[in-house]
Design brief:
This protein has helices at 3-13, 19-34, 87-99, 155-158, 161-173; strands at 47-56, 61-66, 73-74, 76-79, 105-106, 112-117, 122-131, 146-151. With 174 residues, the chain is α+β, with helices and mostly antiparallel strands. Strands 1, 2, 3, 4, 5, 6, 7 and 8 form an eight-stranded mixed beta sheet that branches. A hairpin with a 4-residue loop joins strand 6 (112-117) and strand 7 (122-131).
Length: 174
């Protein structure tokens, strides 16, 4: 199964939690049906991306990265790569690379979807949640200006509404 086929399957099987998420799920499906290259950054009409919010449930906190190009606190994530067999693999790879935390456990279903414009194109982001192992210590990579744990209640003060929504959705899946 190709990454394109996996992304189509994930979106087809995912139960959206509300009408807005259902609208995005349908739009993502149309995008993939229309664009054979819809999971790759080369797709000029936009492309599927995979992200993961790293969560420490015991500490009631999430790990956010200060994105170097956007200048905002976000979940880990980014472009799909040819080595990614599934969207879940892409999300876990990105979370591991950007957080420096080994042993993350990805929850099996997406937590949400978010469509946004970036400097490179429109991103059709499929968002997962990744649970950090006990005692996890993040390490800043070249893809981040900073990494920081934020208590659930702190997220609205530092992040945009999409990250706040993702945090709530991810917590509901725990």
């Amino acid at each position: 199964m190709s990454l394109h086929e996996d992304a189509s399957r994930v979106l087809r099987e995912w139960s959206a939690p509300d009408a807005a998420q259902e609208e995005l799920r349908t739009a993502y499906g149309r995008h993939l049906a229309t664009h054979e290259d819809g999971v790759w950054r080369s797709c000029g009409a936009g492309h599927i991306t995979a992200s993961a919010l790293v969560i420490d449930p015991a500490g009631e906190r999430v790990l956010l990265t200060l994105h170097p190009k956007i200048g905002a606190w976000l979940q880990t994530g980014g472009h799909c790569e040819p080595s990614d067999a599934t969207l879940a693999e892409a999300a876990l790879r990105e979370a591991t690379e950007e957080s420096g935390i080994e042993g993350l456990r990805l929850l099996p279903r997406p937590a949400g979807l978010d469509r946004h414009r970036t400097p490179c194109a429109v991103h059709l982001d499929v968002q997962y949640a990744a649970v950090a192992p006990a005692g996890a210590r993040p390490a800043i990579s070249d893809e981040s200006l900073d990494l920081r744990w934020f208590h659930y209640d702190e997220v609205p003060a530092v992040a945009d509404p999409s990250v706040v929504r993702l945090t709530a959705r991810a917590r509901a899946l725990l």
